[in-house]
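User: Please look over both lines:
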Amino acid sequence: MKTKPILAIVAGLLVCVATVGFFNRDKIALAVLERGADQALANPTIEGLKTGLHAGFCGTGSPMPDRDRAGPCLAIVAGGKLFVFDAGEGSAETLNLMGLPTGQVQAVFLTHFHSDHIDGLGGLGLQRWASSSAKSPLPLYGPTGVEQIAAGLAQVYSQDRGYRVAHHGAAIVPPSGFGFEAKPFAAPAIGSEAVVYDQDGLKIIAFGVDHRPIEPSLGYRIEYGGQKIVISGDTKACDCVTKAAQGANLLVHEAIAPNLTQIMGKAAKDSGQAGVSQVFHDIENYHATPSQIADIANTAKVGGVALTHIVPALPLKALEGPFLGDAKQKFKGPFWIMQDGDLVSLDSQGKLSKSQVLRN
């Protein structure tokens, strides 16, 4: 038979190719880097999002350690313009890796002032300033009190501001473009809402949610081109979300699985970490479960659900079933556990499509 000689020849060729590749690995790596840089910088994802309404998940995590998820962050692209809702740790880096350049962020909207929703703001502001040579500060919308955050970040980064200008020059980092411009508004009560942005066909409505004792706490409804995306913010299961989400194409809702957090709490208690155990217990009463979210989605007749702010972390994909419980049996539309880098786009008919755009 001739099979063995042929296999031997093929094997020999593969060894030769591998050997050549090994000794040229530096050149190959540099070529790959050059090609990747060209693609990432010359053709960012946002270039393909000039029309319609899109949701980019730049942070799907929580305060709990999770190497695969940045802190809470949602990017909305409406008619090619980029807006960010919350900016948790690592979210600016994730935005850039998604091809949603921080230099193109038009404004940031905060749902509330919990640390995990704002601890990436400093990096986001600096990256936007330096990468776009911004001449004016980044607008920062939020309930009354957002002024304190903008002022505090300006103070914290004031020395770094001086370093950047001295090193790169005022043409690259104009001093006038540093930091944030606070855009405070009166927070609507739980169940009430208020228009906080209305420009170029894009309307953003804030509504009060129930995250007590954290007050104020908000969700947002984004309306553009006849389509609607609703962001719950952090909240327990609440009629306030059902009301705001009526007929929405996509509901982006935070989610917790008490059956899993209770395991974590018991482990913390058994290891002598009483404080950590208490935290796991306390967080159950101001977040919503996937099953509750499915009920909200059905009542509001939304087109699909995207779960974010995932609590606890899900290191194994096999945990997604226990995390969701009976939610997918209740709600028959798309019901996704989102990952960093996911992008959901709405077509002209409001149909949802999901893709992964994170670039490593």
The mean pLDDT is 92. The CA atoms of residues 17 and 238 lie 61 Å apart.
